[in-house]
């Protein structure tokens, strides 16, 4: 229930009662300190007597129709419960989740550098300007909205990248949100091209959604200076002392140029410059503008509102996915530059007897000029390749979210999860992930809203403390969670309702992968030495989980003496199983038939310190280490 001015909450149980007199109704609110217990607010008895708790007397009251009227809330998201007791029946309870909205008061998103009262803004760029940032923002809204950019009336597809930031006002529990679009390679074809910033969310009304910026090229008059030879140039107003100063400056410039030439020519001087260039504060620390050669290749499109077309990578290139100009070198963390850097790394490759794989580059966040941390990642825990093409990197700092166009957002997981420790996570739905916490609790993290909500809990088996090993689901309609300590696998629907728990007394379940065949869901599970497949049949609580077969791995195909399965995933008709090798620089990927488990292929992924392999699609592979994310693509030539 979303409430702004409608500050009365109706009890869902009252329309179900046969009479409206012979019962007692009282309202409670969930305690904000522990999030579990309920505080009584007010009660109304059959004789009409009303009893209010003093703490809530000034802010809450009960109406004639037994609804709860609220004049002032404690926090934006609250849970109220209505309790009804009839003389001949047991106590009945119904709870209502309430969100107190802070509606957008601006007529439209404000455009930085433009008149705040105008919904349309014109921006002029110079004849030679090749880079333009545009920003829009809204203030004091709740819940947090999304700001998206689109374009129209463009002769050619523009290249642009976006970044979002948000701050929370602790006083009134509202959000200030800002979105910046970085437009690069400004060509004349962008003349009169318009970019529109649109706001979406519960706090946004249809009349206050968007603002538009139109780009115009400034007409400039340039003059060519006339050149005179030194033999014909005269200076009648120069006196002797002024002429001497000019000669002295020219001599100093000549000496400086000669000294610089010698420094560059002599080997020792050249080495000195290379070693200490970054120590000189006067030297520019910004590299050339990164060439946008790594984002998706797409031919020129007609004018529309689609994302930017991008070109394929070339060897030894740096590819900025968001650019900061020297004037914007100090930026918030969520607007740090994001790049792919192609080091020409010969140590990162995939040995595949069927296909050739090409190293594209390393994913870089923050300042790639910082030699102490060349990627921006630290202690990577896992990489999630989502079904819509997005990618999430989770490390010690938090969550790094990249869209298919490599738009970047940073999400502080510690704040979102309220400082709780997570042990596993997986893709759940569009813009949502599932995180498994200690003791079996599972929460849904909405990346757009940066909020976590309860999803389900894995109950202990045989009195043993729950130790979540893995959760899997995606768009299958089911969520599977393995409990290593209790040796069980629990099955939930998309709403978090548990309708089955399967015991695996002979194995400790670890990694999970979901597979749908002919509409029948199933899942694969790994343990220390083997892989098993199970099927789920029936409807909801009448469903049955049956063991289908073991996947026998022929040791002749293994690169190790013993089978050491790790992460597993399903790609099309293949089950991909990671086999850990003794060599810390390599991982073996076993390609098995997803239906019968027969061996099909074996590939070796190689990277110094490799920790995992993820397939973002059939032709893209992510190799990650403790602090690096490498992208490889299947060659088509």
Automatic annotation (TrEMBL):
GO terms for biological process: cell surface receptor signaling pathway; cellular response to lipopolysaccharide; immune response. Residues 109-214 form the Ig-like domain. Its main location: membrane. It comes from the Eukaryota. Keywords: Cell membrane, Disulfide bond, Glycoprotein, Immunoglobulin domain, Membrane, Receptor, Signal, Transmembrane, Transmembrane helix. The chain crosses the membrane at residues 243-266. It is found in: Cell membrane. Residues 297-318 are annotated as: Disordered. The keyword Glycoprotein applies. This is Uncharacterized protein LOC110975072 isoform X1.
